[in-house]
DNA sequence: TTTCATGCAAAATGTTTGCACACGA
DNA sequence: TCGTGTGCAAACATTTTGCATGAAA
């Protein structure tokens, strides 16, 4: 996996929880149990997830009803504001991934198994700048998703799964 | 506007309506009034739109209740299947654009005015292939959206508009 | 002890579906 | 005629909101 497109680590001095507490304090918001539980759970593992999956994991890890659905949504949006999570729209719903401690990257999206594979390419950044300059556009970010079928799914007999939104 | 990133035209022998009728027939589906009205309306103007906006335009152009909301959704999805429209997920809803008669391209998305600016770059295709090869991924398509603020909106005093989903 | 956060229930949004009737081939 | 398409209303999935209560600071 070490190649032109692999992902280097990023050094961070604070843990995600610490970073989030800093953010909350800087905004006069409170460090509460639900918020802590959510961040801890999210950053225990580096993977993509949605609100529903997160709630499920919380229920399983802590017992049902420890954190409510609205609080999950509210906290996710705070984590995006805080720069801890990146949000993208996939198949009609929001999907989140770690931003804090991980480098900018893009995705291969398998339409069969819905897996997201990360890659990073310097070229994308160059294109971004060139195009933006061309249009006098002030760039804030970008999202590149290459859709198709991953190696594993290519081997398997195709089951009729519907094409998801990109 | 003619530059490395401008969009050349694409030659097509059939009109969108004709192309859609061909598609419908090839699937044993019927050419109905609502379907014709929808395609005609959509291809009367080259711009990005969502289901709601389309319904509104239909209501205005034809009088209320000529085409129902479910039919709009059903027909949009057929047009995507037929390759006449491209669908993308933006700000939590589906946004459509012409695919038939227009070249593959990507977008600059202004977070302030929500405008989509098209551009095309050969480099993106090259990156696509290189990354896919690297991961033994079979590419079916891609979507690149560069977010930021467009020229016009950069000039204007910023009003506090929320960041939309990308 | 004063906010702010939470949970609940309900609402809002965008999209899909079941069904009886209408209509194209 | 036959089978597909349509509109309507209702269901759905996801996300957001109003409000009374609970808990940080």
- Major sheet attributes of chain A: 3 strands, antiparallel
Largest sheet strand order of chain A: 1-3-2
Radius of gyration of chain A: 18 Å
Quaternary state, please? homodimer
CATH class of chain A: Mainly Alpha
The CATH superfamily of chain A is known as Winged helix-like DNA-binding domain superfamily/Winged helix DNA-binding domain
- Percent helix range of chain A: 25-40%
N-to-C order of helices and strands of chain A? HHEHHEEEEHEH
Explain how this protein is built.
Two copies of one chain form a homodimer. Chain A is an alpha+beta fold. Chain A has one domain (16-165): Arc Repressor Mutant, subunit A (Orthogonal Bundle), CATH 1.10.10.10. In chain A, 40% of the residues lie in helices and 21% in strands. Chain A has helices spanning 16-26, 33-43, 51-62, 69-81, 122-135, 151-155, and strands at residues 49-50, 85-90, 93-98, 106-110, 116-119, 138-149. The first copy, chain A, has a three-stranded antiparallel beta sheet. Chain A has a three-stranded mixed beta sheet with strand order 5-4-6. In chain A, strand 2 and strand 3 form a beta hairpin. The two termini of chain A are 25 Å apart. At the A-B interface, strand 2, helix 5 and strand 6 of A face strand 2, helix 5 and strand 6 of B. Strand 6 of chain A pairs antiparallel with strand 6 of chain B, so a sheet runs across the interface. The first copy, chain A, binds a DNA duplex (25 and 25 nucleotides) through helix 2 and helix 4.
Provide keyphrases for this structure.
homodimer; about 170 residues; alpha+beta; Arc Repressor Mutant, subunit A; three-stranded antiparallel sheet; three-stranded mixed sheet; 6 helices; globular; disordered C terminus; DNA-binding
């Amino acid at each position: 996996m070490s190649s032109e497109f692999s992902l280097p680590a990023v050094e961070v001095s604070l843990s995600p929880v610490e970073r989030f507490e800093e953010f909350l304090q800087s905004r006069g918001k409170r460090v509460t149990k639900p918020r802590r539980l959510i961040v801890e759970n999210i950053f225990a593992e580096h993977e993509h997830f949605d609100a529903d999956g997160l709630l499920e994991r919380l229920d399983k890890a802590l017992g049902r009803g420890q954190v409510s659905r609205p609080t999950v949504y509210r906290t996710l949006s705070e984590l995006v504001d805080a720069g801890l999570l990146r949000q993208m729209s996939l198949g009609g719903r929001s999907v989140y991934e770690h931003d804090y401690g991980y480098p900018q990257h893009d995705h291969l999206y398998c339409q069969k198994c819905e897996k997201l594979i990360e890659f990073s390419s310097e070229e994308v950044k160059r294109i971004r700048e060139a195009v933006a300059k061309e249009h006098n556009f002030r760039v804030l970010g970008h999202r590149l998703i290459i859709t198709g079928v991953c190696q594993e799914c290519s081997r398997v007999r195709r089951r009729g799964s519907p094409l998801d939104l990109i």
